[in-house]
């Protein structure tokens, strides 16, 4: 059992199971799946599909947070890239659209990375700049309008399916595998964890800590770009005001639920994505239950608290002391 | 004086104070006596126990054993605030006031004059002005404290402490960031306060200042009391010996195999290497299979030399050569690329990555050297970790344990392993035995000898002179951020090192006499 389920992920997996069970109670059809026109439908698929933007963001965010940084600009980067995609979609092919948007995400990431790694700005302030400016840039691109498009290629990216699964899910899964392969297949993972754990010591051990920090912000930008394209493709348009709004906070939340400390160091890509799924499972469950969406925020807070308590060594320490007291009394 | 204490009677008495952090005994049965109206210097090298003594007396750390009496009555403050209320105030090197608040607010923080629940700003300003006038300071007390120089911040902190009815004032390295003129002002204030009957503890590593201001000196070494003397009757050489050396005349005999050098190949050499305001240009040759010791007092430029040699700090002049070829050492990465390794003095902040495992900490430098695209497989990592855990006898022997949970000695071994795994040609060790229990201490010294016999070149900094004498083939002596003497072969003994460290001071004393 312990070999299959690492102890680190136990709290998250338990939380997901509990929330799924609750969802099953409020909505009896929750686990129903049906195949229609070669595509799977059902609440579970919805959860995965709706969860892709935050899951993609959390893939980049978890690496940034592992270096003891944070990226507040990902929501704004989504808006910029969604705007670019929508503006180009009807005149250009999908490769051009993707190259332009991912390139824009990369430039955004480079900017953040430059401010943090080279100029030494505090990450929260450095990325706040693009968080604010980015939405303005997105509005300039769309000229303040909601830009719609009908390019079938781009629409397929948001609504099509591959082997029965919606394309966004496939993209997110692909990105998880790609990020995992790059980070854990090379020495990047270790060097990022060392940089986040103790940057001074890592620098003295010969680790190129600046390059590490620059790289994670760039990757975070690319992930946000992809999330922005998918969000735009989903609604067949770009809304510079609302695309990706507040999603940076969900992404940070997903990473924290996934057990990565905001103080940097150890991180887990899989658990961060699991964190994103936990958030989306809650959102969907509350929508299905018929409760007003306002409850969503409260319930989210309670679940986050529960997961964090389960992870906290102090809390388990307290639980351990309580158990010992009970035993000595007996 | 308000209190009728006799100026010669003890104001603050510390008896048999002990404190351990884990296996490290930071203080062992230390006695300390401060008389009313005296300025008492507390001296010792890094890790001697000065800060621990201060922090235990002021209740920052709980004590393991011993008593503290203030004016004859036993006190046991549980916090710095309680100590302050009892009459013991501390001003640290980094002034712990709030730079964004005004001078007046800082002076009356927590005790602002109030009326109807509202702070009486005018009254506070007036009283702040009067208080500082007492210290010969006439400044705008409404300006933020951070606008003023460190000297004025220090005086403000002292004024606040004294106004809080302090009878004992502890100044921890107060002059470290002051210029000569500011030091004069501070000393004037200290003399004035002493005249009023306040007992002042002065912690400093500037011996000139200690001789200028203090009436009495207490020296600590490795957590033990070495002795208490009157400043006027303590020659400098004697003081330095108290701080650095045990009475170890016989240690020279341990160093039996005094090797002929020159026969050995030069591993790295530095010519006119230095950095303005950091360390004066120096020449240094490091040979294969040779240990070069760096000796000197705290702040003499030992660590600065080490950082420059490794590349952690950039030189602004001079030439570095590795195996004969000129190289540029601009960053630790450059140092690592040329086969250098550096175990810094501050293991926790500059050495280990506490959260990562022993295995990950050991492979870190090697992995950084190989680059991203050539990752060590998990099998290779396990093998490297296992080899060094066994070779250096790292305990506990579980390579997956977070390194932060290991003892200081074992953390030091992990850092050694990190560099040994890179097969270095030169290892720079800054205080490799500091804060390590006795058993591990001996092991690390044995390791240094073994590594050297394997052809490694070592540059070792230590405050333990008898230790340096034991393993060094040559000893470079530093003073005031410059290399002043190099001893080799027969000339290496504690007496000669001490003489070199004190040479300048002795000359000055004679000139002054």
Task: Give a structural overview.
The complex is a heterodimer of chains A (330) and B (513). Chain A has a single domain, classed as ABC transporter involved in vitamin B12 uptake, BtuC (Orthogonal Bundle), CATH 1.10.3470. Chain A is built from 14 helices and six strands. Chain A has a two-stranded antiparallel ribbon. In chain A, a hairpin with a 2-residue loop joins strand 1 and strand 2. In chain A, helix 3 runs parallel beside helix 5 and helix 11 crosses helix 12. Chain B is α/β, with parallel strands linked by helices and 513 residues long. Chain B has three domains: 235 residues, Rossmann fold (3-Layer(aba) Sandwich), CATH 3.40.50; 177 residues, P-loop containing nucleotide triphosphate hydrolases (Rossmann fold); 69 residues, no CATH class. Chain B has 18 helices and 22 strands. In chain B, the strands form five sheets. A six-stranded mixed beta sheet of chain B has the order 6-9-10-3-11-12, with helices on both faces. In chain B, strands 18-19-20-15-21-22 form a six-stranded mixed beta sheet, with helices on both faces. A four-stranded antiparallel beta sheet of chain B has the order 2-1-4-5, covered by helices on one side. The radius of gyration of chain B is 25 Å and the shape is globular. Classes of the chains: A mainly alpha (330), B alpha/beta (513). The interface between A and B is medium-sized, with 21 and 33 residues.
